[in-house]
What does this fold into?
Amino acid sequence: MQTPPHREAASASPLLEARGVTLAFGGVRALSDVGFAVQPGTITAVIGPNGAGKTSLFNTISGFYRPAQGSIVFKGQDITRVPAPRRAKMGLGRSFQNIALFRGMTVLDNIKLGRHAHLKTNVLDALLYVGRARREEALLRREVEERIIDFLEIDHIRHAPVSALSYGLQKRVEMARALAMQPEILMLDEPVAGMNREETEDMARFILDVRAEWGVTVLMVEHDMGMVMDLSDHVVVLNFGQVIASGTPAQVQANPEVARAYLGSGDVQSLRAKLRAAATGRAEAA
Ligand SMILES: Nc1ncnc2c1ncn2[C@@H]1O[C@H](COP(=O)(O)OP(=O)(O)OP(=O)(O)O)[C@@H](O)[C@H]1O
It folds into this structure.
């Protein structure tokens, strides 16, 4: 018997999985039995009202928090006990909700620092092939840095200190630094929070291009529901630390539980109308 095509798609190996993740801070249960999968090559978004557990989930995936129960699986490997820096080297790149750049340093130096975490040359290599390894590394580094600078259109500010940049540009530099690690999955924590419409449009374009041109899978946490619905292939909705819905943007928008979490009533028409209004606003601003 043949497997229907949609079944095949659903059973493709996920790049990343959260399985039954539970996390508590003292008496507060931030996450309860959270499970979802990120398929390679997709843009997946985690949304939910304030305090739903989005940041806790991100921190658990990137290794800053260890769950009380459950596991995180990346490329088929259980990484629940792998420390955060090693996860980054394995290909989990991330940006932060509150920009975590070195503000006194230039854009280029911040990007170089991101790249530094990816250095492959170990102590033995360095002892045996000092000259060649260094030269090759330097060449490759410069190539990656230039490609990122070009891609994110930040050439004009490469020597500017980060502190002198607008918020939108700082967010873009943070993305550049995360890309410098050449991640397989890029985790973006509220990539458009605090941005004006134009900056939001730019960032949305970069997120789509990261996937299209760099082949990077994207997992983001974002408050801007309209942007999420426009960009994502898959949306996971959290509320009070639990997954209340998961599916395509259209499926999530038609889910009364989601409308209840956001609007206090299960009226999916109102939810759709709200999203349409937001989309019209963005189109007018563009
Ligand atoms: N370090 C912490 N110590 C204690 N409680 C915490 C901590 N971090 C988060 N929490 C609690 O865990 C729950 C989930 O918070 P979390 O920040 O993950 O939600 P969120 O969806 O990211 O919220 P927001 O959209 O406001 O950023 C909340 O009740 C929050 O108060």
About this structure: The radius of gyration is 20 Å. The pocket of adenosine-5'-triphosphate is lined by residues 25, 28, 30, 48, 50-56 (CB under 6 Å). The first strand starts at residue 16 and ends at 25. The chain has twelve helices and ten strands.
